[in-house]
Amino acid sequence: QKHDGNSTNDNPNAKTIEILQKMANYYDRTADTWRTMAYRKAIAALRKQKTKVCTKAEALAIPGIGQRLADKIEEIVSTDRLRRLENINLTPEDRALQLFLGVYGAGFTQASKWVAKGYRSLEDLQNKAELTTNQKIGVERYNDFQQRIRRAEVAQHGEIVRAAVHALDPDMEVMVAGSYRRGAADCGDIDILITKTNGTIEYIRTLMMDNVVPELTRRGFLKASLATTSRGDGSKWHGASALPDTDLWRRIDLLFVPGDEIGAALIYFTGNDIFNRSVRLLARKKGMRLNQHGLYNDVLRGPNQVKLTDGTLLEGGDEKRIFEILGVPWRPPQHRIC
Ligand code: DCP
Ligand code: MG
Ligand code: MN
Questions:
Q1: pLDDT tens digits, residue range 15-34?
Q2: What is the per-residue pLDDT for 230?
Q3: Is there an atom of ligand 1 within 6 Å of 187 CB?
Q4: Which residues are responsible for catalysis (predicted)?
Q5: Which of 9, 51, 235, 308 could form a disulfide with 256 if both were Cys (CB 3.0 to 4.6 A apart)?
């Protein structure tokens, strides 16, 4: 990895420059003088910018940056990567696998099967593969779901859900969690936690599944339902949503939480996933157990750490209290990135 000292790291376009530099190095190696020059020119121009260049239009306004480079800059900023760069050193099979792994709901096994059948592009999947309803959506909306969502738009989706929930019960709480709650400038999807003080899971789930979700679907805000579970006391709805008068589908996850579990659910749904793993491990080391429902004590374990009893609930409703009992100093959501 090439660094140009602190000046690049402090630059608001540091990440973009870093990726463009790798492209320039690649074209240099392939003796493509013309492209190498174009990339170097764009990098030099970006270095002089005082603010972050986010859109194609902003990039085009800078002398020395043309159409193609402007596209790449927008892709880097909105997806946090450049597919062209990642594809350079891959075999066609690897390239197809990477592509298919981005289809919503397709894991490694499914993606590998498609590659083994000889499919190499999204068109192949669309025309030749037998796709489930959800896989069809994942392919059709591939580019939509790959795009990062600016924080302000995440908030707008949250507002629409909140208004629909409050129209039925103003005492319900609707909180945007996930990377949004951690303060991220842009998010991979929209994570919304829905709860009510003293509310039971049955009440909340019924209100959401029988009323709010159908109503928001009827209005055209919710576009598709992709996954739901309601095992025992946990419930979730995963789908897609789009702002009025737009055709850009976003992934949206709703989590239904009973009032007495809101603290544990907030920790779980705020993440990030690595932070969750480390705080859960810490709980186990202290003879406790943390999951999205609560913090428990007295977990009895047999050979090989097999759980014999569930233990008693220590705390579920208060996020800060859970940190306290665990003996971990309070960490605001912005600092829960591992
Ligand atoms: N989560 C977890 N373990 C996983 C997946 C998720 O603990 N394997 C928790 C922590 C995440 C939260 O759920 O922060 C939301 O999951 P997302 O996949 O939506 O991840 P983020 O919102 O953190 O990031 P992104 O911006 O990519 O959506
Ligand atoms: Mg998320
Ligand atoms: Mn999510």
A1: 999 999 999 998 988 888 99
A2: 61
A3: yes
A4: 72 (nucleophile)
A5: 235
Q: Is the CB of 186 under 6 A from ligand 1?
A: no
Query: What whole-number distance in Å separates Cα of residue 254 and Cα of residue 190?
Result: 8
Model confidence pLDDT, tens digit, residues 223-271: 999 988 865 554 999 999 999 999 999 999 999 999 999 999 999 999 9
Q: What pTM does this model have?
A: 0.77
DSSP at 62 = S
220, burial (CB in 10 Å: exposed 0-12, middle 13-18, buried 19+): exposed
Query: Which residue in this structure is represented by tokens 């981005």?
Result: 102
For 194-217, give one letter per residue: b (16+ CB within 10 A) or e.
bbbeebebebbbebbbeebbeebe
- Residue 317 in contact with residue 261, Cβ under 8 Å? yes
Cis bond leading into 297, ω under 30°?
A: no
User: Distance, CA 29 to ligand 3 centroid (Å)?
Assistant: 40
For 184-226, write each residue's pLDDT tens digit.
999 999 999 999 999 999 999 999 999 999 999 999 999 999 9
> Element (H or E) spanning 295, and its range?
strand 295-297
* 186, 192, 276: residue to mutate for ligand 1 pocket, most atoms within 8 A of CB: 276
Q: State both tokens at 228.
A: 């739901």
From the CA of 184, give the closest atom in ligand 1.
Answer: 26
